């Protein structure tokens, strides 16, 4: 294991939310230490990490000290300011690489990258003003979705255009930010592949999960997805192709639309992914440990599933269902240590094991 | 869930070793905070807990502050000084109760308790001097094992007596400590039942595991154990009987000898147990979460197994096998964050899932 971290060495994690929390716990199973960097104090990841830095993304001194104290840096969300990454990268490797961040931070760049690989996507066009929106609608038609190019997640920064008369209002919702128009895809189902690539270029994918979203937020993932064997294989090969093209190291979430005659890539996330939480109770090596193994230069788990699983997110006050859920057989609880159950906030999830 | 802890409340853990570490991680999955109390700094549990107190068992002030800061106190080892428990109990409930500690801290008291329940044990007799040892050997015969009544674990504080001429040397090895003589049991196999009892008196047991020891230290646990259905049921019922008799709250490890015609209780441990580590990769709710659920007043998991598992301990420099083990399919690594791999020291374990 050339360049592999040894037990006792430290993984730095940018971001202190639930993904960071579960990464830190997975790292601890491998005997690795973790150091969490987050502007907000006492968040989910800070509660379980050995070391915590609470400082802003513009605090050059804190960023440098953090980078000096760890052996590799990873991140649990995509929108980390470039200047902060510059400071860190001068001292310590960042995995997955910044190229993966650059591609996935911008929806237009991402779509062009995917199209460049010959992978199917929804039809798309860049939008920067009313004229380019009109031209895009002319070509793509309605219904369509206007999205900001950057900083979108869980349905934020998006406006649906049911017919051309709604174009002006949708453009206004972008607040002048660069955007892209995506054509509506009449999909049968949404799936995702949680794929991993190691430091030596080996790739391992978990079985595709079938996702149900509501109001832009993931509600459930079911594994196995209802897919033909050929489609299942195609989905995994498409994900592997993306990771290889980026010379990627770590876990990536690849969301796909399944239509009557194609698999289209919806989006990629260069990190562990909500739709991979089922692996915690379905596999010997879950997506969090898989990510840590990859960025630490360890061999990857093989992604084999020992059990079928249905993952369900607990959003907002759904966390009040925990007393009842804790009585359910074959149900594993995963709560994130957040105090306030605000609407839309991911408070935890359950994995129901199907034997 | 009357008296149940809510997410955000805090479990205090006495002892900072690997059992405390895995308890802390399990508590975090339930959204509970943990506060570890241990005289040694930076141990396995301290690395993953939210709060840590590093202070001695005689530090009354630190013990009181610790007890004031948590909502329930549990422990990961049995030999906590009585005075320390007195300080804590005046401020905060201790679960499992001190009665369970009192019984299991003293091998003679434990044997008498078990015999009083009508449960089979190895023949035993109290030994406090040469005359009582002679009388005990007369009654029990050889081979036999002389053990200190207190502070024994992993084969420490024990001397084998192959024939009566070895009696004096064995007695000397006790260094004047009160002891008991145990007859040798010609057992076919050793098993253990990881049993749990909740605050409302409900009991749930995991399937018996089959244990292999070497030099007094557990090496492997295999689940399911090679047992007839009747024996399996008997073992679980014996464990449940012990927990009920103690009005126990929490997880207990009950070790049994399987002989040609009987099940004999070897010893009980009022805590999570090395032979229950397999549950981490075999059950939706593992022994650590089960213990936290019990002491927090939550419903228990049902103990059902989704996969067969073989657990193997990594002792001392066996931790050097980690690079090779990390390449094995269906093998889950659990390392404890200990820096020095001293001989006999438990550094981690692997759970091999058998599908």
Look at the structure and give the CATH class of the largest domain in chain A: Alpha Beta
What global shape of chain A is seen?
A: globular
| Euclidean distance between termini CA atoms of chain A | 36 Å
Sheet of most strands of chain A? 9 strands, antiparallel
Number of self-contained structural domains of chain A: 3
**Residue share in helix of chain A:** 25-40%
- Gyration radius of chain A (Cα, Å) is 20 Å
Secondary-structure element string of chain A: EHEEHEHHHEHEEHEEEEEHEEHEHEE
Can you name the CATH architecture of the largest domain in chain A? 2-Layer Sandwich
Beta-sheet strand percentage of chain A? 25-35%
Return the CATH topology of the largest domain in chain A. Answer: D-amino Acid Aminotransferase, Chain A, domain 1
Number of strands of chain A: 17
Tell me which oligomeric state these chains represent.
homodimer
Q: Give the full name of the CATH homologous superfamily of the largest domain in chain A.
A: ATP-grasp fold, B domain
Question: What is the count of helical runs of chain A?
Answer: 10
Determine the structural class of chain A based on helices, strands and strand pairing. Answer: alpha+beta
Instruction: List unreliable stretches of 5+ residues of chain A.
Output: none
- Largest interface, counted with CB-CB under 8 A? A-B, 46 and 46 residues
Question: Mean of the pLDDT scores of chain A?
Answer: 95
């Amino acid at each position: 294991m050339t360049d592999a971290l040894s037990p006792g060495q430290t993984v730095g994690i940018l971001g202190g939310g639930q993904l960071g929390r579960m990464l830190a716990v997975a790292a601890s199973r491998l005997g690795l230490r973790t150091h969490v960097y987050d502007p907000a104090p006492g968040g989910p990841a800070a509660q379980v990490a050995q070391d915590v830095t609470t400082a802003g993304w513009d605090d050059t001194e804190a960023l440098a000290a953090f980078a000096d104290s760890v052996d590799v840096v990873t991140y649990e969300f995509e929108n980390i300011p470039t200047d902060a990454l510059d400071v860190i990268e001068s001292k310590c490797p960042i995995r997955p690489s910044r190229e993966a961040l650059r591609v996935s931070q911008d929806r237009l760049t991402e779509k062009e990258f995917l199209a460049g690989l010959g992978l199917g996507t929804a039809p798309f066009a860049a939008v920067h003003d009313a004229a380019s929106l009109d031209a895009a609608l002319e070509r793509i038609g309605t219904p369509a979705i206007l999205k900001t190019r950057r900083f979108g997640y869980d349905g934020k920064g998006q406006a649906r255009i049911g017919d051309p008369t709604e174009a002006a209002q949708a453009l206004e919702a972008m607040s002048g930010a660069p955007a892209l128009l995506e054509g509506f895809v009449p999909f049968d189902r949404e799936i995702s592949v949680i794929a991993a690539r190691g430091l030596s270029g080996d790739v391992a994918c978990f079985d595709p999960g079938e996702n149900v979203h509501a109001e832009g937020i993931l509600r459930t993932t079911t594994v196995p997805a209802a897919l033909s064997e050929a489609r299942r294989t195609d989905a995994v090969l498409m994900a592997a192709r993306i990771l290889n093209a980026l010379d990627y190291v770590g876990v990536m979430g690849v969301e796909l639309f399944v239509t009557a005659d194609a698999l289209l890539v919806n989006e990629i996330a260069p990190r562990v992914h909500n739709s991979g939480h089922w692996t915690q109770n379905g596999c010997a090596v879950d997506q969090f440990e898989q990510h840590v193994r990859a960025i630490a230069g360890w061999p990857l788990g093989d992604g084999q599933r020992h059990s079928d699983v249905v993952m369900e997110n607990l959003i907002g006050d759904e966390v009040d269902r925990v007393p009842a859920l804790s009585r359910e057989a074959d149900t594993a609880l995963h709560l994130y240590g957040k105090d306030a159950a605000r609407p839309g906030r991911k408070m935890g999830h359950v994995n129901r094991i199907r034997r």
